[in-house]
Amino acid sequence: MLFAMFLGAGNIIFAPMVGQEAGTDMWIPMDGFLITGVGLVFLAIVALAKTSGDVHRMASRVSNKYAIVFCLVLFLTLGPIYVIPRTTSVVFEIGVLPSLSNQDTAHRLPLLIFSVIFIAATIWLSLSPNKLVDRIGKVLTPAFGILLLIIIVTSIVNPMGRVHEPLDAYTDGVFFTGFIEGYLTMDAAAALVFAGVFIQAIRSQGVNSNRVISTVFFKAGLFTVVALAILHISLAWIGGSSVDAIGRMDNGGQLLAEASRYLLGQSGLYIIGTVVFLTGLTTNVACLTAVADYFARVFPRVGYKRWVWINAALGFGIANLGLE
What we know:
The chain is mainly α. The protein has 15 helices and no strands.
């Protein structure tokens, strides 16, 4: 479940571009990528395991006023103002738009229809947070995990081509270029938000000891960062070996879509579309659940379920402004 919460649509589009653009030197920027995209996540998990997942308590070490402002900005950004709209728009751009005609013309109506369905599914999964382990951990994670594995293994068994020389952007300061790209996954900030949801899910399984909860959270975090590292390295390889087969792409979404189609035919497009849909859904659910839970604790009169609807409605409105 924790791995699924982190693995959003944005997570699977950055590493392939690092691999394609850095080419034979990809392992240097990927070192930087893994420090911010994985290492900072692990540090956040360790810190929050010591504070029972309470980000306000952790931030209050600076001051209580700072903690209030920090948490407000953090939860709004990781929720309705940025991440939920971005994820919804990314899934539409990668999973739906390539199948539509007149892609370059107005596609507001398809985006509206898709976002209604996508946000509705997010709300349904978020209204019962005690069922997240069963719904996400036991169903969605294995589903997109298997589909991603099919693409990755195929790219290793049947490489698309040789790895080329790096582009200009990756000939100077390449470590720090990867360092920034890893940070753009936003997983370091997301860890601060997801901790509370995950710990609440542990309690729903009948575990009440703070010591045991911290231990379970730490072990799940260790599994998650190892899995994320393996995934990012695998996706970088796909990007690095893809130039001969599909040429240079403008973004990681196009790269993965075309690489999947090359490796597995038209069914590859359906597979990557399904992967992006499921990963985006799990991230949206994790963010919406965390934000609604936070505001329900700060403003208990409104209640958790109403906050789910309020934040989902705000995210829905911003998503329909389009990805740009």
